Each structure stands twice: as structure tokens, then as C-alpha cells.
Amino acid sequence: MNPQTKIVVFGATGKVGTHFVEQALQVGYQVRAFARNRAKLSQAVADKIEILEGDALNSADVERAVADVDVVVSCLGGTGKRLIMQTAYNNIMTAAAKQPHPPRCIMISSVGLGGTSWLIKFMLTLIAGKGAIADFEKADRRIREETAVPFVLVRPYALTDKPGNGRYRATQKQNATFMQPIPRADVARFMVDAVADRQWDGKLGVQLGGKK
To answer: What total number of domains does the chain contain?
Structure first.
């Protein structure tokens, strides 16, 4: 772990992003939080980080956010009528590729995408809607097709709000689709660990589940 590592976090005020920011600070990383509304960050956290307000759908805002960082972390998620994933992830990867030294990008997607499981993708479509899953699928593909930026593609299974235990099961085996539900705090733990751990870099994607 290099305490000088600077990380920008997209979705820093979300359920996974909040855990990531707190855990990254505990490790000692420098954190820049990118958020549409800085007021959603707790004051205790806000005093310890750099905050940049903006919209991930605005390419200029995203370019400002990724400038001079070592790692980009996205905990974004598009739900309901706000289908942001394809545009946001294209903005992030494009901006990262423009940097003199492209930062590593650690990006949340979903199990069931990228051909990992047609059954889970079908189930997700029934739950979230065809448009939302199609948006995630396009964002997932955009990451996998990137050639100029090193990335970790994180596909968590069955997120919960239960307390985390700091443990998880991670695999790049493409048939390991049915896993234990995983607390959002433990998804954040994997992403914090992945800042320094390069074993997950690459196009296959990491399927992530809980571990007792």
C-alpha cells in the first residue's frame, strides 16, 4: 500500500461508495469524492477528503475529476428512469485514457453481464427492467473493450445492506455465477484491496460473492 496513492471515487455518496470512502481513509489513501451533491457526504468524512461536485454524464466534469489521480473507482449505479451507466462509464474511460499516465479504473458492473450467466441476466431484467440491464450491459462492454487503461471489472452478486465481515469470494471463472449474497461493505473492501492488488486486472471481470 502506498499512502500517497490518490483515488477519485464516483458514486461516493451511494451505498457502496460511502463504505469505500470510509475504508480507503482507514487504509490511508488520499481520496477525492466526486458527487452531484456534496451535502450528502457526512461532515466527519468531508473534513478528510477533497470534494468535487459534478455530474458523471458531463464529460468535462469527469475529465476534471480524473486529472492527476492514480486510481479511479466507480461505485455508480443506474436505476429506474435514470439510465446513466453507458454514458458515465464511457466518459470515465475516455477521460482516463487521455491522461499522460492513465489511472487504473476499478469499476462496478453486475454478475450476469458480459456473458457470465444468461439466467441471472434474465432474472435481473425481470427485476430491474430491460432498459436498465441493457444500460449496464453496454457499460460493461465499454470497459472490456478498453485498451489504453488498466482496469478491474467488478461483478458483485446479490448485494445486501447487512454488516460486512471484511471477507469475500472472488473469482474470474466464468461459470461461478451463483454465489453467496455479499454486503455492500464487503464489496467496498474488495475494491479497496484491489487498489494495491493487481491480480484482478483484465477483461474477464471478477465475480464477487460473500464469504462467512
So the answer is: 1
Distance CA 60, CA 197 (A): 30
State the CATH number of the domain containing residue 43.
3.40.50.720
For 19, residues 6+ apart whose C-beta sits below 8 A from its C-beta are 164, 184, 185, 187, 188, 189
Per-residue pLDDT at 153: 95
**SS3 of residue 89 by DSSP:** helix
**CA 22 → CA 33, 156, 170, 211, distances in Å?**
11, 19, 22, 21
Per-residue pLDDT at 41: 84
- pTM to 2 decimals? 0.91
Q: Average per-residue pLDDT in the chain? A: 89
Note the pLDDT tens digit of each residue in 28-61: 999 999 998 888 888 878 889 999 999 999 999 9
Is residue 1 domain-resident? no
Within 8 A by CB and 6+ apart from 197, the residues are none
Assign 86 a pLDDT band (cuts: 50, 70, 90).
Answer: very high
CA distance 116 to 161: 24
What range defines the domain where residue 69 resides?
6-209
Residue 199 counted as domain residue? yes
What string of H, E and C letters represents the secondary structure of 151-199? EEEEEECCEECCCCCCCCEEECCCCCCCCCCEEHHHHHHHHHHHHHCHH
